[in-house]
Amino acid sequence: MNTHPHTAPAPVSFYRPQRGHKAPTMRSPEYVQMSTAAAITLGLMQGQMYRTDCTHCLNLLLTYPEGCRANCSYCGLARHREESKDYAERNFIRVEWPAARFDEVLERMQNGTDRGRFERMCISMITHPDSDQDALTLLQRWVRAVPDIPVSILSNPTSMQRDDLLRLRDHGAEIFTVALDAASPGVFAQTRGAPVGGPHRWEHYWRVLEWAAEIFGPEHFGTHLICGMGETEQEMLEVCQRVCDLGGHNHLFAFFPEQGSLMEQWQPVARDQWRRVQLGRFIIDYADGRFENMQFNDQGQVIDFGILPAQQDALIASGTPFRTSGCPGKENEAISVCNRPYGDSTPTDIRSFPFALNAHDLDCVRRQLAGEAVGTFNEE
Q: Mind listing the domains of the chain with CATH numbers?
């Protein structure tokens, strides 16, 4: 991704992190951070993204000078970084998250010529005492100002009880998601729980997912999962089936080490593992496949996806299983409008494609599924 700063000084209402600069005090709900792709699409930053011109989901992140109070070992916002880096300057899923006044975001959405490029808005919560109330405040203001663009909530289950989900639904949230991230109790504890000084607990996350299934209903809730943090493919796809059976969808991320995180020395998820999990997740979520019909070897790797070869070949040829997975837009529920350009890989080694795959992309994916060490994606 190539981004270019404004030639004139940025307005007071917009803050783009700069190396060595102390960030001003910015606090939600007055301020929100947003992904670089969202800032470019909204017109707050100049820049270009490789092979895609925008994102169709406005990703907003709650922000506080004191930061997130969790300590997830793979996250750029983790509490352990507070002594070495100002909070507003920390990276998150590999990209900058510039800040703006929420009033300005609403004004641009109401009056801007590019508002039609957004099909969804997402409020991402963090672990902070004010996060629950501030998420509700932003939701209420958005629904009044931009009622035709639906809202997803990326929740912080640790601070939430059942009534919190009811309030969000009753005030207009359409989709509720839980960033489970880890696919097994052991990996969850080691990356998010007590062993790393974190407050999150596997059992409570699943309790909140079950509340979401009841309160928001089928197709209106889901979970985020990160592939490559020590779980097996079998464990990952078993969780995908569990979420699907509740009525939800699974949004996958490829593990890519975040600079400054406790896991920054880990290797990215193996390409063949990632492609098999992407395909298996899609079969479970959208192709009526079942985890129980899949076969795995002694290492927990998929050796049979449990569907007919012709159906499997057609799914691969479509390229859709290998696109970014997330909340849907207006046209096709299997294709996410939250395409998160290069949030889990570099443009030269694309893991989640934020656009439709071309013939060259499909050839690389097929070779990766076959175990070949292919990683460079260049346009033909």
A: 2-268 (3.20.20.70)
